Amino acid sequence: MAEFVTVCEVGPRDGLQIAKAIMPTDIKQRWIAALAATGLSQIEVGSFVPPRLIPQMADTDAIVRQAVTLPRVGHGLEIVALAPNLRGAMAAYEAGAQRISIPISVSEGHSRSNTNRSTDDQIAEVGRMIAWLRAQPRHVFVDAACSTAFGCSFDGVIPVANVVRVAVDLAQAGADCVILADTVGYGNPIDIKAKVRAVRAEIGPVLNGLHLHDTCGLGIANALAGLEEGIRKFDSALAGLGGCPFAPGASGNIVTEDLVFLLESSGFSTGIDLDKLIAARAVLHEGLPSEPMYGNLARAGVPKTFAKAA
Amino acid sequence: MAEFVTVCEVGPRDGLQIAKAIMPTDIKQRWIAALAATGLSQIEVGSFVPPRLIPQMADTDAIVRQAVTLPRVGHGLEIVALAPNLRGAMAAYEAGAQRISIPISVSEGHSRSNTNRSTDDQIAEVGRMIAWLRAQPRHVFVDAACSTAFGCSFDGVIPVANVVRVAVDLAQAGADCVILADTVGYGNPIDIKAKVRAVRAEIGPVLNGLHLHDTCGLGIANALAGLEEGIRKFDSALAGLGGCPFAPGASGNIVTEDLVFLLESSGFSTGIDLDKLIAARAVLHEGLPSEPMYGNLARAGVPKTFAKAA
C-alpha cells in the first residue's frame, strides 16, 4: 500500500488573486467541481480578505458554501479558505470551511507590506483566531504558513533561526499543521532541507506542509527535497496559475499536474486521477482565457510508462 | 572551495536537430561563441550524421573547426561532437573535436528506429570507433550515452538490468565516461537513483553523466536526484531548446539556466556566469525566432538572494 501524500490545490485562491481578469463565479464553481472530481483531498477555494484589496476573491463566501456540498471522491475532500485575521476566520467558519489557512510572514518587510503589521502582531492574531475557532462547536483544522521562509523580495535571505522561531510560535498557538511557504519562489533544495530539518527538530510532525512557487524553475525539485525530508503535504496550482506581484514575469505556484506525476511516479499515492486533472485545465482556460497555462506533463501527455501508485 | 559540476550545453546539437527552421551558420557560430563566453566547460556543437537525415547539422564540420578556436574561459572549454558511427567519429576527429559523444539505445525499438541496427550491433560499432580513435596521435575523450535508459516511447519501461548491461559493455569498450540518457523524458527521481546506483555498482565513477529532458516537468528534480547520487556532469540546453520527435508537444532538454541555478544555489561550482547565460538567449532567438524558449529563471531574473558558489 503506497504512502499517501496530500495535495492541496490552491489555484482558486493563490492562482486567481494575481490574475489580471476576474473569473466569473459560475465558471469558478464549475472549475472547483472539476478539481474535486479528480480526487484532490484539499482545495483552497478562496480568501476572506476585503474585496477592495483582492476583487478576485469577492465571491469567496458563496464559493465556500457551494464547495462544501460537492461530492467526495476517494480519500475525501476538505475545503480550505484563507483568513488573514480574526474577522476572516469568523467568516470562513460561518461559510463552512473545513480548514482555514493563515499566512504569517517570517520577514518583517513582507509582513508590513502585506498586512501593515509586524510578524509578532500577526502571530498574536493567530492566537486569537485559534482561540475563537476552538470555542466553536464545529472543529476546523488550522494550517499556519510561514510565508517568505525561503527568501523575500524585500528582506532577501531569511535565516533558519527566524523560520524556526515563527514556526514554534505558530505550533504553540495551536495550529494543526505548520507549513513552510516559498512565497516568492527563491528556494533551493539545500535551503528547503535545512529549514525542514531545523523546524522538525522543534515541532516534529506538526510541520507537514510545503507551499512552493516555480519562479526560478526549481519548484518540483524543491518538492522532491521536501518529500525526501518527510513532508507529506504540498500546495500547488493547476497549470501553475499565479505569479508574484513582487517578481514581474515570475511563474506561479508549482504545477499540480507535474507535482502529482512526481508523487505518483515516486511510489506515493495521491488519490488523484491525472487524466481528469489535465482535463480540468479546459475549465480554467474557459474562465481565464488570457492567462498563460504552464506545465510540461499536460503538453506532452501522460507517458505510456506511467504506473499509478496503488 | 565548492565542488565542480560539469554542464555540457547540448542546445546546438540536441536542441537544433528538432527545430523546424535551420539556424544560419553565422548565427550559430555567434551563439556558440556567446555560450563559450559564459564559462561553460563543454558545448556539444553538432552531429556528424548524413545531412539528408538531419539538415540542421549539415554545417557541423565548419562549426567544430571554428568552435575549437574559441577562447577558453574559467575551467576551460571542450568542444563536443556527436558521432553515430565510425565514419562520424573519423570526421569529428579530423575537424578537431575534443570529445565525441556516442548514443547507444538500450531499447531495441529505439535502436532499430534510430539507426536500423540492434543495440548489440551499436555496441560493436562503439568498439570499432574507440579502437580507431585510440590509434590516432591526438587523445579524444569518448562519452558513451545509454539512450532511453529511463523509458522508451516504443518499448515502454526499460529494466534496470538492461541499462546495466549496456553501460558495462560501453565501459569495457573503453568509453571515458558513460552517460545515462532520458531521451524521451519519461524518467522520475526514483528510477534515476535506482539506475545510477545499479550502474555505479558495476562501473564505478566511469558513470558520471546524465542527459535529461523535461517532457513531464520532472527534469530539474531528476537532476537533483542524480546530483544526490554523486553525478557530476549534466547535459542541458539553453532555453530548454529541443523536443522529442516521438512525443508531440514535449519539452526539450532541461533548461541550462535553471540547471545552473540549481547547481550553484546548491553549493556546487559550474564556472558559469548566469547573467551571461541568460543574455545568450537573445542570440538563440535571433537565429530561430519562431522556436519557443523555455526556462523560468530567465523570465523572473536571478533573485537577489542568489549566492554564486565560490
How would you describe this protein?
- The structure is a homodimer of 310-residue chains.
- The first copy, chain A, is of the alpha/beta class and 310 residues long.
- The first copy, chain A, has one domain (6-300): TIM Barrel (Alpha-Beta Barrel).
- Chain A is built from 13 helices and 8 strands.
- Chain A has an 8-stranded parallel β-barrel with strand order 1-2-3-4-5-6-7-8, surrounded by 8 helices.
- Chain A is globular, with a radius of gyration of 18 Å.
- Chain A starts with 5 loop residues before the first strand and ends in a 10-residue tail after the last helix.
- Chains A and B meet through helix 8, helix 9, helix 10 and helix 13 of A and helix 8, helix 9, helix 10 and helix 13 of B.
Largest interface summary: A-B, 46 and 47 residues
Oligomer: homodimer
The assigned structural class of chain A equals: alpha/beta
Written as H for each helix and E for each strand, in order along the chain, the element string of chain A is EHHEHEHEHHEHEHEHEHHHH
CATH class of chain A: Alpha Beta
The CATH architecture of chain A comes to Alpha-Beta Barrel
What average pLDDT do the residues of chain A reach? 94
Helix content of chain A: 40-55%
Low-confidence stretches of chain A: none
Q: Supply the number of helical segments of chain A.
A: 13
What is the count of β-strands of chain A?
8
